[in-house]
From TrEMBL:
Substrate binds at D35, R59, G81, R136. This is Multifunctional fusion protein. PANTHER family: 3-DEHYDROQUINATE SYNTHASE (PTHR43622), 3-DEHYDROQUINATE SYNTHASE, CHLOROPLASTIC (PTHR43622:SF7). Catalyzes the specific phosphorylation of the 3-hydroxyl group of shikimic acid using ATP as a cosubstrate. Catalyzes the conversion of 3-deoxy-D-arabino-heptulosonate 7-phosphate (DAHP) to dehydroquinate (DHQ).
Amino acid sequence: MTGPLVVLVGPMGVGKSTVGELLAARLGTTYRDTDADVVAEAGKPIAEIFYDEGEDHFRALERRAVAAALTGHAGVLSLGGGAVLDGATRELLADRPVVYLSMDVEEAVRRVGLGAARPLLAVNPRRQWRELMDARRHLYEEVARTVVATDENTPEEVAQAIIDALELPEGQAAPGVESTGMTQQSPTRIQVAGSAGSDPYEVLVGHQLLGELPQLIGDRAKRVAVLHPEALADTGEAVRQDLADQGYEAIAIQLPNAEEAKTVEVAAYCWKALGQTGFTRTDVIVGIGGGATTDVAGFVAASWLRGVRWIAIPTTVLGMVDAAVGGKTGINTAEGKNLVGAFHPPAGVLCDLAALESLPVHDYVSGMAEIIKAGFIADPVILDLIEADPEAARTPAGPHTAELIERSIRVKAEVVSSDLKESGLREILNYGHTLGHAIEKNERYKWRHGAAVSIGMVFAAELGRLAGRLDDATADRHRTILESVGLPLTYRGDQWPKLLENMKVDKKSRGDLLRFIVLDALGKPTVLEGPDPAVLLAAYGEVSA
Ligand SMILES: NC(=O)c1ccc[n+]([C@@H]2O[C@H](COP(=O)([O-])OP(=O)(O)OC[C@H]3O[C@@H](n4cnc5c(N)ncnc54)[C@H](O)[C@@H]3O)[C@@H](O)[C@H]2O)c1
Ligand SMILES: O=C(O)C(=O)C[C@@H](O)[C@H](O)[C@H](O)COP(=O)(O)O
């Protein structure tokens, strides 16, 4: 029978790709992964396939990918963690050189860590892992010719064990292929300096960062409150359970999703929960979720006992690149967006990129607006990276995801490091937000923030152009790039009087003076004060539908 020399099965995080690539190099052959084949065929990440079409559809795609690889691939093949759940896929594996890579519970929890993309492990990872393996172990064993335990072994040792067990002939090592090791790459650490009397802190970007949490919480805390949105109930509970396992008195407080969390009623509910738990000044709040959640978590932390420490674990693009960094916390009121709040920086920010895999595409794209904002105001390389492949930039699987996120965080970190309280420079981060927030209020906070900011940036670009500051090419570039990732460019023409009224309570306004951030050129933001009402109207005409 022709086909792969080795087929690797086993749970998520066991190291199938690390071992598979290493093994392929040792055998002088190539490595293939059916998850990657499925993603390539569907044109979207696995989490989105599950979300849009359901698990049955995913398993059917996976079965086809396995069948194709078993006949068309002669090297090392690895299958997704759940492939063996499908009976027809198991039948395809009969008489194949299948190796089951196993690991024990503690190792699994350590390696897999926090991943909203791995919802099966979200609630109490240890217990869930045990249940998951109880359900799957016999299926792995049913298809496997041999079992190789990975727990105590390096990838090299695991590869050697497979070579020995299957008596595989070692070939010419493929040039340039080296083991990446089983351990995850260390996270990128971006420093935010202390400013206006606040402490410095770090923003970590990477994978499996939950292990950093206890150190950030510190040993002075007795109680920890984990604030999470309804959509991340499992993840919030998993974090709470992990903290409880480590001896903290940990409570979870579930908030509504999105902007519905940013109300005084929700803040009051949190204060009540903290009061009833006996939360003191040494205790710590953890906000895990999108920007709406971290805005509320930070605000509750700023207001409880006039300020307790808090840690942000952003799980959206927008949260990572913007909301969780910089210490602007707050809630909305009927009169306007973020009108009540405080500057209260977190003690640390953990951006676990795995969380983005479960983010619906429209929320992912909303975050692109703030990334593009960072590109226009400070780092044009961001724009180049997106323009090179806008479609890929819309997904966490894109080749530049981590770089786009890190570059945007660096822009924000640099600004807030020197002007926490927005006494000058920080206003540039508000590019596109004057009209954006007015639209959000007009839509009763039902719109996604990034969508409103997108229109706001096109408006600001037109304002800059009409004020004789911005060149045509840069102004036009706003439309092209925002549209290319799927963000809106226009809003209802008849709404101008209401929007103008809404903009008067923008935090950059001074008395009756409206102030806007515009560009003098790419990467050169500036303040435009009190523009002529006719110019404002003309700029709005350019974004009117
Ligand atoms: N403080 C700041 O400096 C700052 C900066 C920018 C934006 N913001 C604020 O951030 C908010 C927007 O944040 P956002 O875009 O993150 O939206 P969001 O917080 O409303 O989240 C969007 C939706 O995704 C869900 N969600 C979050 N993470 C998920 C995940 N990993 N998988 C699946 N679903 C997930 C949420 O529950 C919500 O329903 C606005 O209120 C905006 O004003 C604040
Ligand atoms: O951090 C800042 O400063 C910003 O302006 C970032 C904005 O992207 C963000 O939406 C912020 O919440 C807006 O603040 P606001 O003061 O205009 O409410």
